[in-house]
Structures are given as C-alpha cells and as structure tokens.
Write a structure and sequence with these properties.
Elements (H helix, E strand, L loop, with lengths): L3 H9 L17 H21 L14 H4 L8 H14 L4 H11 L26 E13 L5 E11 L4 E9 L29 E23 L2 E20 L2 E5 L1 H5 L4 H4 L1 H12 E6 L3 E7 L3 E7 L9 H12 L3 H23 L29 H7 L3 H4 L3 H15 L10 H9 L4 E4 L19 E9 L2 E15 L4 E11 L2 E11 L6 E13 L5 E23 L3 H5 L9 H6 L22 E22 L2 H9 L3 H22 L24 H14 L14 H19 L2 H40 L2 H24 L13 H23 L3 E9 L2 E11 L1 H11 L2 H27 L7 H14 L5 H12 L2 E4 L12 E9 L1 H53 L3 H7 L14 E3 L5 E3 L6 E2 L4 E3 L9 E3 L2 H23 L3 E6 H9 L7 E4 L1 H15 L2 H34 L1 E2 L1 H17 L2 H23 L7 H9 L12 E6 L1 H50 L3 H8 L5
Antiparallel strand pairs: 1-2, 2-4, 3-4, 4-5, 4-6, 5-8, 5-9, 6-7, 10-12, 11-12, 12-15, 13-14, 14-16, 15-16, 16-17, 18-19, 18-21, 20-21, 22-23, 24-29, 25-26, 27-28, 27-30
Helix pairs in contact: 1-10, 2-10, 20-36, 22-28, 22-37, 23-25, 23-28, 24-25, 25-26, 25-28, 26-28, 27-35, 30-33, 30-37, 32-33, 33-34, 33-37, 35-37
Pfam family, one: PqiA
GO molecular function: ubiquitin-protein transferase activity
Protein name: U-box domain-containing protein
C-alpha cells in the first residue's frame, strides 16, 4: 500500500515536475506512513508556489480578481455588482445552490452538461436522490500505477451528491478573509488558508461543505502478464461523507484585452469556437490546491466490470490499490485528492484548453475565433435571399449550440411544471430566490411605524406636498403612500412561452406569460394612501385609504420583431456586454429620411419592435377601504365595490385599459413587413415609440466601442431630436395661430366682394350709359321739364331746410323736448363712460370647480381678462390679427360713433347740412350693430371654454358623478357694461334719427303751407293784373317745394281747386304698375306677375325656416385638445372631445351656467345677454321678413307704409345675423391661440415631457399641451349665411319697390304741377320763356 500512494502521486504530477521522488517502501507503522505522505504533500505545494516566478512582472496584463471580486476596490461597478449579487445568492447555507442543482440536475430533469444519475452510497443510510454530472475524457487519461503490470486509462468521471451543500463560499478574492461562521453550528467554521500565493490578482478562492460526495470512475484497465494481456472496462464508486473543502483556489490568468474582446460566437457555437477563443485569452488556468477533509471515507464500490476475455472478475489491481488506500490509510485520501485528482483536473484543463492546437497540427482547416465585422450593410433594398443569409432566423437559431441549450433549459427548467406544485418551475427557480413570494416597497423596510399617516414624514415610500398657485388657484396639496406590496408573485401558471419561434415569420418570436391563481391571485396593495387639497375659503378634500387589487390569470402575449445581423452577433465583444448601444448595433439598422425628421424611409421595414401585444385579466377585484375620509363619495365607492356587478365592471374596465395601452405599441398594419406610407410627423402604422427605436438603432454604431463607426466624442443625436421637437412645436403653433385659415377665409371673402364689386360697377356703367343715351336721344321736353323741376326742388329744399332749421341741441321744445336736448349729450357721455368701464374692468373670469366624491372646491378668478388688457396680452402673445380686430371694433369704433353722434347733435345746419346730417345718422345707426362683435365673440368663447370633465357613466364600480371638473367663463361687469352701452347707443341712435326727421318734417310742412298760400295769392294776382307769373314763381322758390318725406301731394284739379292727396288712400304694392322711366311711352308700365307673388310668399316662408334651421343646427363646433381634451374624452368613452354649438344650444348653455353659478347678479346679467342674443339672431330676422311680406301684400295708406318702412329700418338695425357670422369667423380663427395663451403658459415646465410623448407616439402633436380649443364652422352657419342673403334680397326688393312707387307717385304729382304751370305760362308769358326754361335743363 505504501508503494501505491507514491506512484499515484508521482504519476499525477508528471506534467508539473519530472523530478518527483518516490517514497521508499517502508514497513514502519501507520505514523511513519502519515509523516511521509505529509512530506510528499509539502514538496508538491512547494513546487506549486515556486512556479512562474516572473508572473508578477506581467500582473497588469491579466484580469485583476482582487478588484473584480471586491466591490470596494472595483472600478467596474456594473460587473462587480452583478457578481456580488450572484455571490449573495449562491453563498451561505447552501440552500440556494442546492435548489438550482436540484432544478437542473435531478433525475426528473434533463441535464445539459452530462449524465444525470440517481444513486446513493452503498454504506450510507436513507440517502435521498443525488444530483450528479458526468465528464467525458475523449482520449482518456493514463494512470501508470507501476504495480502488477496494470495500466489504467480513465475515460469519464461522474461527480455525485452535488445537491448536498451545507455551506458555500465561492468566488472570493484570495486576500479576503472568508467568514463562514454559522451561529447555529460552530463546527462549520472553515479556517482560512495560510498559504501565501504568488500573483494573488489571478487567484479565485472557494470553500464549501457537503454532506456527501461520490466519484464514479469509468476506466479501462489493462493487465499484462506473461500469458498475455487482459483489458477490463471498470466502473467504481468512491463515496465520502461530511466533506469540508477548506480551500479550493483557482489560478486563472486571463489577458485583459483578449478577455474583453472574447466574441459572443465562442459561446453561441461553443463546439467550434469556444476552445479556440479561450486559448487566446487564457494564459494560465490551474487548480492550485484542494485542501479537503472528510468526516467519513467509505469503502470503494465496484459498480461493474467487464473483461474482453469474458473472465468473471470481481476486482482489479487498481480497485484493490484504491481500496487499500481508503481502508488502510484514510489520512492519505485528502492527499489523493490534492495530488491525483487535482492533477487529473489540471491535465484535462491543459489538454483541452491550453494546448488544444497540439491536437490539430495536421488540420489545415482549423477554425478561427469570430471577429466583429467592419462593414455590414443589410437593408430592405437587398433581395430576400441575400438578406436572409445575413440575418438570424429564429426558426433554426435555437436548434443547436448554446441557443439550443438555453432554449432547452428555459423549456425544461423554467416553463415545465414542477411535479410537487403543479406550477411552472420558474416560480421556484427564479421568482422565489431572486424576488420572493411578496415584494414590499416602502421608505424604510425595517420600519414598524404605525403612527398616523399624515402626522409623520418618516418611513413613507412617497411623501410630497406643496402649494399650487396658478392664476387665482391657490391651494395646498399633500400626497403620501406608506408602502406598496406586490403579493403572490410566484403564481405564474400556464400558458408560458419564452423565445418561441414562429413558423411563418423568421425574424419574430413569441413570448407569453400568465400569472395569478384563483385561490392565490397576484395582488397589488397600496397601504395608507393619503391625499389632500386644502384651501382657505373654497373648500377642501382630505382622504386616507387602502387599495387592494387582486388579479387572476393575467395574461400577456408579446411578439417581437428583431432582425439580428448574424456576423455582428457572433463577433460581439464580451467587454461591451453591459453596453446597450452595442446590443442595439447588432440589429439591422433602418435607413432614416434625409430631411432630418428621424423617420424611416418609405421602403424601410421595422427591424426592432413589437409585432403583437395582447394583455388581459380573467378576473380583477378592486377593494378600497377608508381609514379617514372627508369625502362622502369615498364611503359610497367602498360599499359599491363590494357588489359583484361592480367587480365585473372593474374587470371589464381594466381589460379595456390594457387593450388600449397595448394597441399603442402595436403597428396598425397586421403585416409589419409591408411598405407603409411616410408621414413627416409620424410613421403611419408604427407602434408607440417606434420612431425613437429607429433613431436609437441608427445612433448605436457611433456609441459602441467595437463598432467601426465608433466615435468616443459622440453624444446622442440632439440635432435629430431638436429638429423633430421643433417640428412638433411648430405643428402646434401652426395649428393654433393658423394664418392659412385667415388667408383661406379672407380669400373667399375677397373673391366674393370682388365679384360683387364687379357686378355693381357693371350695373352702374350700364345704367350710366343707358341714362346718357336716354338724355341725349330719347328724352322729351316734358321729361326734361320734370327732371329740371325735381332738381330745382331738391336744391331749394336743401337750402330752405338749412336756413329755417337749427341744430338738434338748439331746436325748439316743440321739435325736441328740453330734457332730450340736454339729456342726449349726457346719455352720450355716460355711454362713453360705460364703454370705458367695460373696457377697463374685468370682462370675464375663468373659474374652475372641482368635485370629487361629493366634495367641491372652487377656484375663482383662475384667469381674469378685460378688453384693454387682453388686447395687449394677445398682441404680445402673437395674436396680432385678433388684437387688431378687437381694437377696431371694440376699442376705436364705439368711441368714434359716440363722438360723431355728439358732434352731429351740436352742429348747426350751416356747418353740417340737413341732408349730410341725415346721411351720417343713418350710416352710424346701421354701423352700430357691428360694435356687438366683441360681445358675440365673448358669447362664443363662453361656449368654447365651457369644459366639463366628468366621471364615465358606463363604469359600474364608480358612483354617479364621482368626480367632475368644470371650467367656465363667467361674464363680469366689463361685459355687461359694454353690452349696456351698446344697447343704449343703438336706442339713442334711433331717437336721434326720429327727432332729426321730426325737425325736417315740421320744417317741410311749414314751407309747404307757406308755398300753398303764396300759390293761391299768385293765382289771384295773375287773374287780376296779368303779372309775369313765371318770374314771380322763380322769385319765390318756396312755391316749388314739396314735402317728400310725408308724400304730400298738392295739385289743382280740373276746376282749379288746390287740394292735398289723400293719406288715407289704400294701395297694394304687389299690384302697382311700375312705370319705366327710360321709355318715351308714358303709358308703358311693368306689372309684377302672379308667380312672383307666390315666390315672395315662398321666400318669406323659406327665409323664416332657414333662420330657425340655422339657429337649431350646429353653427360651429369646438374641439378640445391637450391633456384636458384627453381627460374630457375619458369621461365620454374616449369619443373625440368635440362639442357642437347652435344658437339654441348657446342660449341653453348660458341659462345652465346661470343656474350653475346660482347668483342673482349672474341670473340677471346672463338673462339679458341671452335675450339680446336670441332676439337679434333668431326673432328679429323673422319679424323683419314678416314686416317685408306685409308691406308687399297688405293694402296700406301712405302713413302706414311710411311707418312700416321705419319699422323695417329699425328691425334691420337690430338683426345681427351678419354680426354673429362674422363673430363665428373671428372666433374660429383665433380661439386656438387665445386658449393656448390663456393656459399653456402654466405648462412650460412640461414642454419637454410633451415633446417626448409626441416623439414616442403617445400624444398627437396637437395634444402636446395642457389645453387648447379649435373652432370649426358647421352647416348651421352656412344656413344662417343663406338666410342673411335671402333677407337682404327680400329687403332690397321690397324697399326698392316702395321707393320706386313713391318716385312715380312723386313724378305723377310733378307732372300735374308742370301742366298747371304751363297753363299759367300760356296766359301770361311769351314763348321765349320756354326757350329759357329748356336751356336750364341739366344732365342728371
């Protein structure tokens, strides 16, 4: 036996030193044998310590494990952190590593590294299933025992008992003390090795304890005798109990640079590349020492023996020698491990790793280690065949090599069900060891603070508070969360699929996970959620609740597109394994557009992204418990959630939310490889974040060190992002301040006005030519006399009125009462004061009312604006066009109108003629209505900014009106003051025109009476003395005067009696025979046909119908954008936040707002505003159309018709359809910029966030803001335009018919007067007077 150990020791150390000396055979006692073995062991260790003396000079070339394995000394924090977490997991009492080994190497599993055997020691009692692993030695390992002519060739070794660790301390730097103290068992303390190792930077220290260990040696033993040789195949077992590995140091000298550049292909195709690549990076790999102790060395067991000569053998010389050693000299067993076993391991390492080239000297086709390609161009312009050869095909990728091992490991050790639990093994292998059954997130995991949640700031996961001050909003807020628990994480159930290839899609793979059992659902618990909003006067909300969400069978299906370039993956450098840019660089890079929008070109497909994403929950229970709740609705919510219907609604709602969220990530086109149209803002069909992923892929090569495009000074492509961000901002800006919108409508109006002007000029030109032709060729002397007579009478009338009348202020009390003469200037000045008050005071205020769980907080005066201040602010904000319109219609014109009226009131006729005064008053009266544009715009703004965010009514788990946010524009004194001033201005204008006409009428009547008296006297004089009446008539111009305004006719009948026409005579306008002034035949007339009368009736009915229809149909719509718009959509089942408004709906909304405000002042003001709006847009246009129809069809006297004309004039001034239409145009044009200016200034800190949301495709560009509204013209407005046109046509037709009727009546009267004058002339004048008269005819 003494001879055996030295020979074994000598043979096992041949490679290391050929100078080892055998121990002399000695028959001394056991004590002497032990001393000799110990001396031999010391010599071996001395050799180990003295080799490679020059290694210290090259330490800097190798990986420094002293730093890498020590977090305090490491520069590479990421890798060290990973190693440290791994050590923390596997080191300790051995349960973690036993669990892993059980999962991978127990007989119920398929071993990936060797054969799995379930065995127990023959001499050990009740041994449980033991995990083992086998190592094959292809060429065998020769053991020359030097006894009995026996040679041993070791072919394989199986190591068993690997799941019996009781103490583990692996991957430790050799200079660090390994503390293996076990408080429960002091005998498990492992002493630290006292050996001083050279080059400690390259040494990894390990030690552990095991309950049992066995080695199954499979060998071929050849026994040579004089009669021949016998070859036996032997399988034996060496069992041990209570193993203590005090020290197991490994010297691993890895070249740093070579290690960093180890390619991924060496691992993926390890059979062809691993050893070749390892040879380039490993300078030395050696097991230095096996300092091992055994509590019990059992007898070796012969498992099997088979000889080539069919000899029945039960033993062999090698087995006998081993048995003698184990039984006779147990102290030599550790030496056997530290020499023979260790040398076997080292020789295998050397032959299979360090000296692999020696086996391939005659192989000219030796493979080379993969390298990263310098240039790889793969894009969709390549033909399919060449592209497929360059990309990883997942259908075959997992069929061999490391990918196959990983996939097989995942399927068998993670996805497969555990027999003991019936659940997938991933729960035991991954989740429980690394995460645990439950996970708690809190401020201090060791805290047991049970104090009131809002009385302490300690130990909270979230604790934030502050003050919100935005405009008139002033509130304190607090938000706290004590902790969040995720329970029953280890409840993954089938189906589970990981990295599952898809037959039809070579570049896609599927992943599916399902979690949550019915009896143990996955739960998320939020403990002590406290939220409060506190104000001084406007209410408060303060609640503390606990929330629990239980989810059963939550399923997620994710299909990935990942086009990996094969050469890049195989050449991937291990040093960059933590560099995300390098991982992205192995994926096919899509080509982006050339205009720096960062969008894939039209012919490019997705190379990295999602093809499909589906998430669902079989059942979800939501429970809310109130701890302290000030909101009554929270208690109601908690009780409602106890019902089954509410929980079903929770499940349905959560699935809808998951469906919406997952739809954001999935391309809209089912076939992701189809070509998609390019959009400069967003790639059509792409899922959420796809644009950013494409940019990351393009930037990856510049940020990956082993890429040929690597630029160490490169930073993320801010140019692309800034360009896209600026484009996003500009798209919002262009959307809001749309000058194109103004140009479009302005062009339409300009074209219409141009056409109207062309028609008017054409008509004027034709009329002018016809009139000229009429005067030159067709007019008779009688007609010339009439024209001359009319012109003279107009001139005389003007002169007479100017001479006999005074200013409105200085008129007599009979004409203008005293209180009117002095009161009107006061009213005008007071009206100016009202306009100033309206423009300088608050015109409106934006209020916000928040209702949550039956508690209400009101923020008044969130934003205040007046006409003056808002005009300046809008100008500064960029809305110059709107500011100019407001300035003209609301700032300049009202004061101009009042000042003009005041001047006209005081100016005498000598400075301002009667006719000009009347013209100015009529124009001012007609233009007064246009000052109402700003009021109508505010009315539209009230409708536009009336935003209501309410809780969805289709959610069965929420109480009705659980939450609501109301934003509304409240009219203030400024608006009412401006409205009152407008009404007073228009009413006073009517009074001024009335008194102006009264003065003219009275002056005209006086002149008429005087003229009639003079005519009578002159007739008497002519009959008595034959005076030249023509000269007398010319010397008394008042005799030619006629009161046109009253249509008073004074003529002499056949008997010469002077009489006035009968004002009580009725006539019908529709039956009147209208004469043609340009015809010579005085008897030729025009009579309206019967169908025209029916058309007039039809027109009146259609006009009324179009007005009513236009007021009922939506005339404009308001679409809300931004975060508020999304919130509005959430309350209406995510339908677009578009609100249609008509005249009727605006009136209803204003009354609802009055009820909402519940204030007597608001009731009165809004009611007056409503009545004004409704009457001027709906009621008065209908009344005017009725008035015009009555004028046309009813028989009226001259006085009645005059009154009807005045009434129609007043109604025309008070119908505001045109004003409303123009206000619609202005509002729809500028609502966008005004709304953004009002609110988005408060969201400037979120601009970067909004830009990223647009960049990732979550938000549309128009929603990348807090709040914005955009108005659009709807069909109702076009109906109102049509009604305004019809009303204008009807008014023009009837008014001109009335004027023409009066004109011909006047002409008939004048004809009679001329005939009467001619009779007088024939008696008292000569024919020369006729020549003088004819020469005085002027061209009209």
């Amino acid at each position: 036996m003494a001879d055996v150990v030295p020979n074994l020791l000598s043979r096992s150390s041949i490679r290391r030193d050929n100078d080892s000396n055998a121990v002399d055979d000695d028959d001394d006692g056991e004590e002497q044998q032990g001393q000799e073995v110990e001396a031999q062991l010391l010599r071996v260790l001395q050799i180990t310590e003295n080799e490679n003396e020059d290694e210290n000079k090259e330490e800097d070339l190798y990986v420094n494990f002293l730093e890498l394995l020590d977090p305090e000394n490491s520069d590479n924090s990421t890798i060290t952190s990973i190693i440290d977490q791994l050590k923390e997991y596997i080191n300790g009492d051995g349960s973690a590593i036993n669990n892993l080994i059980n999962q991978f190497l127990l007989p119920t599993a398929n071993s990936i590294s060797g054969n799995v055997n379930s065995s127990s020691s023959a001499n050990s009692s009740n041994s449980s299933s033991s995990a083992s692993i086998s190592f094959n030695i292809p060429n065998g390992y020769l053991l020359d025992l030097g006894i009995g002519g026996s040679t041993v060739n070791l072919t394989s070794v199986t190591v068993g008992g690997l799941n019996t660790f009781t103490l583990v301390n692996l991957l430790q730097p050799v200079t660090v003390s390994i503390d293996n103290n076990n408080d429960n068992d002091t005998t498990t303390t492992l002493p630290i090795s006292t050996y001083e190792y050279e080059s400690p930077n390259t040494i990894i220290q390990n030690n552990f304890k095991m309950k049992e260990l066995y080695l199954d040696l499979n060998l071929i033993e050849t026994i040579t005798t004089t009669t021949g040789s016998t070859e036996s195949v032997v399988s034996m077992r060496l069992p041990f109990q209570n193993i203590t590995m005090k020290a197991l140091p490994l010297r691993l000298a890895l070249f740093i640079e070579a290690t960093k550049q180890l390619p991924m292909g060496a691992l993926l195709d390890y059979e062809n590349y691993l050893m070749i690549c390892l040879q380039q990076i490993i300078h030395e790999f050696e097991l230095i020492e096996m300092n091992i102790e055994f509590g019990l060395v059992e007898y070796p067991i012969m498992l099997s023996i088979k000889s080539n000569n069919n000899t029945n053998r039960t033993s062999t010389p090698f087995f006998d020698a081993i048995t003698s050693l184990f039984i006779g000299l147990p102290i030599a067993v550790p030496i056997f491990f530290n020499t023979t076993i260790r040398n076997i391991i080292n020789d295998l390492i050397y032959d299979n790793i360090l000296d692999i080239d020696s086996d391939n000297d005659d192989n000219s086709n030796t493979a080379t280690c993969p390298s990263y390609p310098t240039i790889v161009e793969v894009n969709d312009s390549y033909d399919d065949e060449s592209t497929d050869n360059l990309l990883i095909d997942y259908r075959t990728f997992f069929n061999e090599g490391l990918p196959f091992m990983i996939k097989d490991l995942i399927d068998s050790q993670l996805i497969a069900n555990d027999i003991s639990t019936g659940l997938p093994k991933i729960n035991n292998v991954v989740i429980e060891p690394f995460i645990g059954e439950n996970m708690t997130l809190n401020g201090n995991s060791k805290s047991n603070d049970n104090s009131n949640s809002h009385s302490s700031n300690d130990n909270y996961l979230l604790n934030t508070n502050g003050t919100i001050q935005l405009g008139g909003l002033d509130a304190d807020y607090t938000l706290k969360i004590k902790s969040i628990e995720i329970q029953n994480i280890n409840t993954m159930i089938q189906p589970i699929k990981i990295l599952e290839s898809i037959e039809e899609e070579p570049y896609q793979f599927n992943n599916t996970i399902t979690m949550g059992l019915s009896e143990r659902p996955m739960s998320i618990v939020i403990n002590q959620l406290y939220f409060a909003i506190l104000t001084d006067e406007d209410g408060s909300i303060e609640n503390e609740i606990d929330i629990r969400m239980d989810m059963e069978a939550m399923n997620v299906i994710l299909t990935m597109i990942m086009k990996i370039v094969e050469s890049k993956l195989y050449g991937f450098h291990m040093e960059n394994i933590m560099n995300i840019h390098c991982w992205l660089d192995i994926i096919q890079t899509p080509t982006l557009d050339d205009d720096q929008y960062g969008i894939r070109t039209e012919n490019e497909n997705i190379t990295l992204g999602l093809s499909n994403l589906v998430a669902s929950i079989k059942k979800m229970n939501l429970n809310i418990t109130c701890t302290t709740c000030s909101s009554p609705g929270m208690v109601e919510l908690s009780e409602l959630l106890d019902t089954n219907d509410a929980q079903d609604s929770v499940t349905k709602t959560m699935n809808a939310i998951l469906s919406y969220i997952t739809s954001l990530f999935v391309p809209s086109d089912d076939n992701n490889n189809k070509k998609k149209n390019n959009d400069k803002k967003k790639k059509n069909g792409d899922g959420l974040g796809q644009i950013q992923i494409d940019r990351w892929l393009n930037e990856a090569a510049y940020q990956c060190p082993h890429s040929s495009k690597y630029n160490p000074n490169y930073s993320s492509n801010q140019m692309l992002q800034n360009q896209y961000q600026s484009q996003t901002s500009s798209s919002i800006s262009n959307y809001s301040y749309s000058v194109d919108y103004l140009i479009l409508w302005g062009s339409v109006l300009l074209v219409l006005n141009g056409l109207l002007l062309i028609v008017m000029v054409t008509i004027w030109f034709i009329s002018r030519q016809r009139h000229k032709h009429f005067l030159e060729k067709k007019i008779s002397n009688d007609k010339k006399n009439i024209l001359q007579y009319i012109q003279q009478k107009d001139d005389i009338l003007e002169t007479t009125l100017n001479d006999t009348t005074k200013s409105l202020f200085c008129s007599d009390n009979e004409q203008v009462p005293f209180y009117i003469r002095y009161g009107m200037p006061i009213i005008i000045l007071g009206n100016i004061a009202l306009f100033l008050s309206g423009h300088l005071n608050l015109g409106a205020t934006v209020d916000i009312q928040i209702t949550f769980a039956d508690e209400t907080i009101t923020f008044n005066n969130f934003y205040n604006f007046s006409i003056a201040k808002s005009t300046i602010d809008i100008w500064k904000a960029g809305g110059k066009e709107l500011a100019i319109l407001i300035l003209i219609f609301s700032g300049i014109w009202p004061y101009t109108k009042q000042l003009i009226t005041l001047v006209v009131w005081f100016l005498p006729p000598s400075m301002l003629s009667i006719s000009k005064r009347g013209t100015i008053l009529l124009w001012v009266d007609w233009l007064t209505k246009w000052s109402m544009i700003d009021i109508f715009v505010i009315v539209i703004c009230i409708a536009a900014f009336r935003v209501s965010i309410s809780s969805p009514d289709n959610l069965g788990f929420l109480p009705d009106n659980f939450y609501a946010i109301d934003l509304l524009v409240v009219p203030m004194w400024g608006l009412y003051s401006n409205m009152i001033a407008q009404i007073i201005s228009q009413v006073s204008s009517h009074y001024i025109i009335y008194y102006h006409r009264q003065i003219v009428n009275e002056a005209t009547a006086e002149a008429e009476d005087a003229a009639a008296l003079e005519d009578k006297e002159k007739d008497n004089d002519r009959d008595g003395d034959g005076v030249n009446d023509d000269k007398l008539e010319r010397s008394n111009p008042t005799s030619l005067f006629l009161d046109e305004s009253k249509a008073v006719l004074e003529v002499k009948d056949e008997d010469g009696i002077v009489s006035r026409n009968n004002n009580n005579k009725y006539y019908v306008l529709r039956t009147h025979a209208f004469r043609r002034p340009h015809r010579d035949n005085v008897n030729e007339t025009l009579v309206v046909r019967n169908w025209v009368n029916y058309a007039m009736l039809f027109l009146g009915v259609i006009l009324s119908a179009t007005v009513i229809t236009g007021c009922i149909l939506p005339s404009f719509s308001i679409e809300t954008f931004g975060i508020i718009g999304i919130a509005v959509e959430s309350g209406q089942q995510f339908e677009q936040a578009i609100t249609n408004h008509s005249v009727i709906s605006i009136v209803q909304m204003l009354f609802e707002e009055a009820n909402f405000l519940n204030n007597i002042g608001d009731y009165i003001g809004i009611t007056v505003l409503n009545c004004l709006f409704l009457c001027t847009v709906l009621i008065i246009p209908i009344l005017q159309s009725i008035c015009l129809i009555l004028q046309w069809f009813l028989p009226l006297t001259t006085t009645q018709r005059t009154r009807m004309c005045v009434l129609n004039e007043i109604l025309q001034d008070w119908q505001y359809i045109e004003v409303y239409i123009l206000a619609l145009f202005v509002a729809s044009w500028q609502l966008g910029p005004v709304s953004q200016w009002l609110f988005n200034g408060y969201c400037d800190p979120l601009e970067g966030f909004f830009s990223q949301m647009v960049d990732y495709g979550i938000l549309n560009p128009e929603d990348a803001q807090c709040f914005s509204v955009q108005g659009s013209i709807e069909p109702g407005s076009f109906t109102l335009v049509a009604s305004a046109i019809l009303l204008a046509l009807l008014n023009s037709f009837v008014t001109k018919a009335t004027r023409q009727y009066n004109y011909f009546e006047k002409r008939q009267r004048l004809q009679k007067e001329i005939e009467h004058s001619n009779e007088v002339v024939e008696k008292s004048t000569t024919s020369s007077s006729h020549q003088d008269f004819d020469e005085s005819v002027v061209d009209v």
